[in-house]
Design a protein that fits this description.
Elements: H1 3-25, E1 37-43, E2 47-48, E3 53-61, E4 69-74, E5 78-80, E6 85-89, E7 95-104, E8 110-119
Parallel strand pairs: 2-8
Antiparallel strand pairs: 1-3, 3-6, 4-7, 5-6, 7-8
Length: 129
Amino acid sequence: MRKTEVIRLISIALIIAAVSSAVACAPAGTVSLDAPAISSLTPEHPDVYPVGNTRITCVAASKDGSALTYQWVCNDGTITGSGATVTWEAPKTYGDFHIMCTVYDAAGHKSSQTTTVTVLVRDPSKCCR
């Protein structure tokens, strides 16, 4: 066997090992061709004031037409409601806040998407007139 053939075979073996390792280390449930498709996750108001709120809607569809369930989480603030549209109430602090929706189909396949809402500093010159 020539040196170039040996190098080529070793390269192919390394690529196969890397791909196999990546697939084996993928978190369960994150790689599925059958997972529901999320086409949008949209806040009605992407900017709010402290303790303000915005409706957030997730538009999704299952691959097989089965019913979907929705799970909502956020890094701060309060989520009320359930299903495809919820209301997020901002905390008393300022900054960017992330709201994630995970959609499950009847077979347990899932997809997730995250949106960001910014809590703005209220302009004191526009208050209390």
